Amino acid sequence: MPVAGMHMRTPTNRMVMRDMIMAAIIITIMVITMTTATIITTTSIATMTTTAIPMLMTTNKPLRPQRRAHVEADASGTAVPAPGAGSMSESEVASLYRLMTWLSPSFPVGAFSYSSGIEWAVEAGDIGDAASLQGWLGSMLADGPGFCDAVFLVHTHRAASAGDDAMLAEIAELASAFVPSRERQLETSAQGRAFIEIARAAWNCACLDRLIASCSGAVYPVAVGLVSAAHAIPLEPTVHAFLHAVTSNWISAGARLVPLGQTDSQRVLAQLEPVVAATARRALAASLDDLGSATFRADLAGMRHETQYTRLFRS
What percentage of the chain carries pLDDT values higher than 70? Predict the structure, then answer.
C-alpha cells in the first residue's frame, strides 16, 4: 500500500508509447553505426589487399636491407657502440693514446725551448707576419729538415720492426751526421735523448732496451721511430703525428717571436695541413738515397743563431 502522505503517479499509455519510440530510435542508430564501421573496415582491408598484391607480384630488385647500428647501453643507460661494431680494437686505442701523449706539447722533451733558426729569421726580417711564417715553414717541411727527419723516422721504424740492429745503427749514425749546424745538433739530440728516457721510464717494453743499445745517441726522429716500433704502433700515423708535432712547435716559436695571435697561429697550422700530408706520403715512399735538403736560408739561420746578440731560444 502507498505510504501515507505520498502521491504516486500512474504511467499513462502516452508515456509508455514515448519510451518505446525512444528505445527503438536508439537501437536503430546503433545498428546503423555498426554497419557503417563494418563497411569501412572491409573496404580498407580490400584496398590494402589490392595494393599489396601487385607489389608482391612485381619483379623489381629487392631493396637493400638498412644497416642497423649495433648499440648497447652502459651503466647510466647511455647508448654506446657494441664491441666489434666498427669500434677500435684495444691495440688501436693504446697506439692512439701513446702517440697523442708522446707527441703532445706537454711531453717533456724540451721542444718549447728551440726555434730551429726561426728566431734569427725573425730578427733578419725574413719572417714578420703569418704569411711569411707559413711560407718559411712550408719550405722547411717539404724541402728541408721536415722531410729528412720523416725519412729517418720511417726507416728507423722499419729496421726496428724487422729486428735489423745493424741497419738501425747505420740509420742513427747517418741521421746524426745529416744535421747541418751545431745548434740543430743540440736541438735534435737533446730531444731524442729526453724522448727515449721518458718513454722507457713510463712505457717500457721487452725489446726497447735492446733497440736503444743498438743505436746510442739517437736524434729525435730516430728516437720516435724506435720507440713507436718497439710498441708496435703503425708507421703511417706515427709519421703524420710526428710532422704535426714538429710543425706545431715551429709555429709556437714563431707566434712568440713575431708575435702572432692564437687565431693566426691556428690559421697557419690549418694552411700547412696539405703540406704535412704530402711530406708524410713522400717520406713513406722514399729511400735513404732520396734524402736531401734545399733550404739553405733556414740552414744559415740555424748557424747564425749561435752568435745572435739577444735570443730567447736555444736554437
Answer: 73
